[in-house]
Amino acid sequence: RKEVEQDPGPFNVPEGATVAFNCTYSNSASQSFFWYRQDCRKEPKLLMSVYSSGNEDGRFTAQLNRASQYISLLIRDSKLSDSATYLCVVNPPGGYNKLIFGAGTRLAVHP
Amino acid sequence: DAGVIQSPRHEVTEMGQEVTLRCKPISGHDYLFWYRQTMMRGLELLIYFNNNVPIDDSGMPEDRFSAKMPNASFSTLKIQPSEPRDSAVYFCASSLEGGDNQPQHFGDGTRLSIL
Predict the structure, then answer these.
(1) CB atoms < 10 A from the CB of B40, how many?
(2) Is the peptide bond prior to A93 cis by the omega test (within 30 degrees of 0)?
(3) What pLDDT does residue A1 have?
(4) Facing residues of B67 across strands?
(5) Could you say which of A97, A101, A104 has the minimum Cβ distance to residue B102?
(6) Average pLDDT of B96-107?
(7) Which residues of B touch A102 (CB under 8 A)?
(8) Residue of B nearest to A98 (CA)
């Protein structure tokens, strides 16, 4: 079983749609969690951290369910500029800032 | 603020040649990471350093790969001899000390093609 698993997509949605990505992780003792965004032929960039209580940043909402070892990202009112690959990222225990990246979920927002 | 700086941006070379990739982390960051990204395997951690000391090199694929960090502002990843299957995008990233929730900041990457 992979340490971090994501649905690869692609998710094709119209502008204005709400889309949700899910991610599961295998190590129940994992410490911290992030969502990164990667545009085509670019480097991964931090989108947001994921906190236990859930957190929101504008149109983006991240949720963590430790019991189910599950992380989600919700994007409301999708924009064309949201088209990218979204990487679920987990910091395993004892990893000292070591991060494990999921394979990514590709999102394509169309007019 | 200067981010993580990698060089070269692109490298095309013939198999058997030595390849050296370079990275300058963000000033003040204590951790430096080297990753490789391919379509088949995604983003893989190769090795990481803390305060210039290698901590975990379990991701380094073979003895042909080596990495050094002679000081806090410079690291190299070397492949010798290179093979076509080494073709990938190699990213360097850095982060601060401080436990949980310290994100990593990536450089632009080096696109490596081994012919």
Answers:
(1) 6
(2) no
(3) 72
(4) B77
(5) A97
(6) 78
(7) 42
(8) B48
Kind plus residue range of the DSSP H or E element containing A84: strand A84-91
What are the φ and ψ backbone dihedral angles of A41, each rounded to 5 degrees? Answer: 65, 25
DSSP 3-state of A89: strand
Nearest to B103 among A34, A42, A98 (CB): A34
Count of residues for chain B? 115
Asked if B91 reaches chain A (Cβ–Cβ under 8 Å), the answer is yes
How many C-beta atoms lie closer than 10 Å to residue B15's C-beta? 13
> Phi-psi bin for A91: left (phi > 0), alpha (psi -120 to 50), beta?
beta
| Nearest in space to A63 (alpha carbons), one of A37, A92, A88 | A88
Average pLDDT over residues B97-113: 84
Nearest-CA distance A47 → chain B (Å): 10
| Contact indicator for B89, B21 with CB cutoff of 8 Å | no
Q: What is the pLDDT of residues A13-30, one digit of tens each?
A: 999 999 999 999 999 988
Q: Do B45 and A99 touch (CB under 8 A)?
A: yes
Q: What is the pLDDT of residue B62?
A: 86
> Which residue, chain included where needed, has tokens 């694929």?
B61
Q: Which residue reads 């859930």 in tokens? A: A54
Look at residue A80 and tell me whether its pLDDT is greater than 80. Answer: yes
- Cβ-nearest to A43 among B45, B100, B107: B107
The backbone torsions φ and ψ at residue B109, rounded to the nearest 5 degrees and listed phi first, read: 90, 160
Query: Token pair of A39, please?
Result: 């545009």
> How close, in Å, is residue A61 to chain B by CA atoms?
17
Q: Are B67 and B76 in contact (CB under 8 A)?
A: yes
